[in-house]
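Please check our next protein.
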Amino acid sequence: MVEWIRLALDLILIAIVGAGLMQTARLIKHLMGLQQNRVEMERFVRDFHTTVLRAEAGIKGLKNAARESGDDLEKLVEKAVLVRDELSFIVESADQIAERLSESASTAVRPEKKVATKSEETMPPHPANETAPPTKSDETRVTPAPSSRAEKELLQALQKLS
């Protein structure tokens, strides 16, 4: 009986050692898989690091390009402001000139009737001091040909009024 017990214990011990060997084999297999995964992970980290460095360089490039574009845009805005100021000055000057032309055109077309004083009636007109309004023949001879559309329109308006 003792031999049976020894034999049973030896079989149990052999089964336990066999199970341990199988577990060891499975662990070795898993460790090899982890080692391969570790190598792949290291490669992935290197690639990712390279990609991050490229992205940082790209961002720096974009920042520089944006800064340069912003500087160019700022210069263009400054020029546009100067041009706007000049144009507003020109428009104001043109308005003033148009008002003066309008006033002179209205006085040329409808001169105010003066009540002649007795001294003016008795004195003969002095040709050297008197400036006679131009006649139509004088206007056609003296008036130069208009060079711009605005001048043509202004002359047409003056001719319609007279």
Confidence is low (pLDDT under 50) at residues 113-132, 136-142. The chain is about 80% helix and 0% strand. The radius of gyration is 53 Å. Residues 106 and 161 are 8 Å apart (CA to CA).
